[in-house]
Amino acid sequence: MSQIDSLPPLSQVIATHGIAAKKALGQNFLLDLNLTARIARAAGDLRGVDVLEVGPGPGGLTRGLLAEGARHVLAIEKDARCLPALDQIAAAYPGRLTVLNADALEVDPLAHLTPPIRIVANLPYNVGTELLIRWLTPPAWPPVWDSLTLMFQKEVAERIVARAGSDAYGRLALLAQWRCDARIVLTLPPEAFTPPPKVHSAVVHLKARAEPRYPADAKVLERVVAQAFNQRRKMLRSALKGLVPDLEDRLIAAGIAPTDRAETVDLERFCALARLVAG
Hints:
With 279 residues, the protein is of the alpha/beta class.
């Protein structure tokens, strides 16, 4: 493994500071600095960019982001055991790393960031999906961030990029693909991590679009999609029952057969239905 900076190897950092991964915090540490640098590069040219990182742990990805030229990294870490290791990185990159000892679900990072902003993280498994949905559903669009480069369990990553008709297709795919261009850029086996999880992982890159792919009111679309997939095996005339009067007429007007199931309906037709429901 090549060194990307003058700091100690991550295995040594973990041993020195006693940072054993905690299952309760959804921690699985990626120790190969070559891999963390690849993830950082997947976010594009970071020069002149502020980066938000959630769950840096001992700082492998943090080091990759800084070594790849990020103007400033804001790292939000809930586990206080990791703070001495992150302070060591901050000292090696003066003025370029800010660490907040906080829960990412409870803190507003914007006071510490200056656009352009990208979000890059090996997200803790237990909060990853919730954070993604928050980032995809801000009050206004386009969002404050330009792109998201995020590691998830491979199953979750496949749900983000899934197409209509596949088993993985659902609410997450529609929310992501309505406003972003999403693709899987890296897949990692369990043995890349310490401790190894039981599943493969994958990195997804989501580039924010200036405008959603098809017009629709965000809240109406979210409500339609959530209700449709809440009972995904039901025909839509049953799954969406009570959503709006004359439901079957509106389904047909959107190009959807009332007997279709949610998993067969593509994004364009869901957006058309959302416009008809709103109207």
